[in-house]
Amino acid sequence: MFFLDSRLHGNNKQSTYSLKTQIKMKQIEKTFKALGDPTRLNIIKLLGGGELCVCQLMEALKMGQSRISRHLSILKEAGLIDDRRQGKWVHYRLHKSKDSRKFLSLLNELVSISKW
Question: Is the same domain home to 46 and 86?
């Protein structure tokens, strides 16, 4: 068990969190940070239509390869996308886990009710 300060609740007593809970919280933090950028949100939206290679994303977003690749790296590290290599091309798609599908469904719902 690890002990974290629980100052968020206005007191100084310590809360106990399991290592598993802390790891899950870190993953959630990575996910929200990854989605905190409009370009990465656009990439997620584009990948919602199916698998794409970097060149297709470059054309759709009017950005250079290195910039797109950096955004893809952040999304992959957050567990939101997967890649597969086919020859010299790398194709990206949304991650297919049950949690990712639920999260992306929620994201789509939020986008549909916003003015974005």
Answer: yes
Question: Do 44 and 93 sit in the same domain of this protein?
Answer: yes
Instruction: Specify whether the CB–CB gap between 53 and 91 falls below 8 A.
Output: yes
Q: What is the pLDDT along the chain (116 residues), one digit of tens a residue?
A: 334 444 455 544 445 678 888 888 888 888 888 888 999 989 998 998 899 999 999 999 999 999 999 999 999 998 899 999 999 899 999 988 766 667 777 777 776 776 65
Output the six-digit token pair for 42. 């656009």
Q: Which domain holds residue 12?
A: 1-25
Same domain, 68 and 106: yes
Phi, psi for 91 (deg, rounded to 5) = -105, 140
Eight-state DSSP code of residue 104: H
The b-or-e profile of 98-116 (16+ CB within 10 A means b, else e) is eebeebbeebeeeeeeeee
- Identify whether residues 63 and 90 lie together within a single domain: yes
